[in-house]
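Recap slide: Phosphoserine aminotransferase, sequence and predicted structure.
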Amino acid sequence: MRLWNFAAGPATLPEVVLEQVRDELLDWRGAGCSIMELSHRGKEFSGVIAQAEEDLRELMGIPQGYKVLFLQGGATQQFSQIPLNLLAGESAAYVVTGSWSKKAYKEAQRFGAVTCAASTEAAEAVSGGFTRLPAAEAIQVDERAAYVHVCTNETIHGVEVFDSPRLLARVPASVPVVADMSSHILSRPMAVEDYGLIYAGAQKNIGPSGLTLVIVRDDLIGRAGPQVPALMDYRVQADNGSMLNTPPTFSIYVAGLVFKWIKAQGGVAGLEKVNRQKAELLYRTIDNSGGFYRNPVAADCRSLMNVPFTLADPALDSAFLAQSKEAGLLALKGHKSVGGMRASIYNALPLAGVQALVSFMEDFAKRNG
Ligand SMILES: *Cc1c(COP(=O)(O)O)cnc(C)c1O
């Protein structure tokens, strides 16, 4: 039996996609073998990856002049691949709003002069110290910077950027914006043209782990120096259609099915409606609990995808986790740096899952309040 899965990643996938994978697993569309067993250079898989790219371009409105790369290594590999490709002896600036952007900033320091454009890390330990976005005026980026890096949804702290142009209003227009969108890509319409490079590990909103999407503007390709390994060079990957070596074919195939599923939901605009309903219901339940539950994130940047919350009495945490699991609600334990609980309510988690969660939460509060 499938239960409601609130895992942060790898995360829940649309049930109909899993059913289709199951149905065509042994004999993929009459090929006589599974998609995993077909050459990545054959006509069958070439069709799969081309269709996935076409659907992604349509869903996100990716303009001409951007390449879509299907890579490996996770979002974490991009923490080094981005400076390796884009720094080219210049500096870069990082906006630090949570654990992931902090990690990206730290890794980039291995490759050159990078600066912290702004940090919202607070001295007090509330929610691991990250509960808000910086003011636009507080973001300092030199006009010679090769890029400015932001994480537009901090998965651990539940801090989301809803208006990148406003947040980055003081950044010189000549500086490209690089965004880690791992945990909210495809959750609502986003203007790709606001960014020089967008990247995302697949295992939150796209498909199975093992695939990493990079959407990169043409002028940012080809800046890597001669020491950069060929596999890590965006130019080489773009010239080889993401197939310099064997790509993660199964993950790309499932991602393609997820893209079709998103189209059937009315695209990212259709998903946004449901995602907002889900998040509003959950935050309302937290805010109306009379202090039993608490989410410390500022109202204008509360994530639609990752909702951390604490119980006023942490002694109840283990009972909450055990009983929620019994009620068919999986993986609600919060990240250790924040504590408490976290409900990840990605695209594939239906409204009914959040309804089940909030009725459990209300009941638990009644019994223990
Ligand atoms: C999960 C996550 C990562 C790390 O992804 P991997 O694919 O495991 O490397 C990086 N950034 C964000 C925002 C994430 O949510």
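The pocket of pyridoxal-5'-phosphate is lined by residues 9, 74-76, 100, 151, 155, 180, 182-183, 201, 204 (CB under 6 Å).
The CA atoms of residues 31 and 44 lie 8 Å apart.
(End of recap.)
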